[in-house]
Amino acid sequence: MSVQRKQIILNEIAFWKKNNLLPEHYCDFLTALYAQGEDVEDQGKEKYSQALLAKKKKNTTFLYVILGAITALLIALLILITTAAFIPIIAAGIAICIFLYIAIKLAKTKSVMTPLLFVLSALLLLGISFKVWDVYFFDYPSVLIGLIIGNCLLWLFSGLLLKLVYFSVSGIVGIVLILFYLFRFYL
User: Fold this and answer.
1) Residue 46: what pLDDT?
2) Over the chain (187 residues), what is each successive 10-residue block's mean pLDDT?
3) What was the pLDDT predicted at 65?
4) Structural domain boundaries enclosing 129
5) For residue 33, what pLDDT is reported?
6) Which of 23, 29, 27, 32 is nearest to 13 (CA)?
């Protein structure tokens, strides 16, 4: 019997023993039979502890990535709000491109980070829209309304294209609110 097959069988027996699928003495007998005198108990515990450490490290890394992304978003929004130059607009645009690139790469693996990166990109784009209006078109409120409608349409179409319900709903709600505002105050 090959080493791989023997290890698969031993892992399966350890699973049965751990989950009480067979009586413990049967599992011990089968383990002794397939192990042929090798020390299996230590290998199983070592692999189990390695798996636990890997899972804990993955969860910690995920937490740090989320905190880093939220921090980056808050810093970018703070810079967009407080600075009147075009440099933060370019920096936020680059951040949006990076977030979207990473989100598209992670979408193939169905990562939990994908929706978060899409939302961060959408919020940064909305912040850029407000900053562009504030810096270049402050005297023209109709440009602001156009930029907000553009963002809402982008959310709606990206929600429909990517099958993301929260973007579709956000786009529809935003457009309805803008139309309500226009009809109420301009008619």
Assistant:
1) 53
2) 73 81 84 73 53 66 74 71 67 81 79 83 89 85 91 92 89 93 81
3) 77
4) 56-136
5) 83
6) 27
For residues 121 and 73, state if they share a domain. yes
Dihedral, 16, 21, 22, 28 alpha carbons, nearest 10: 20
Q: How many residues does the chain have?
A: 187
Of 136, 161, 178, the position where a domain reaches its end is 136
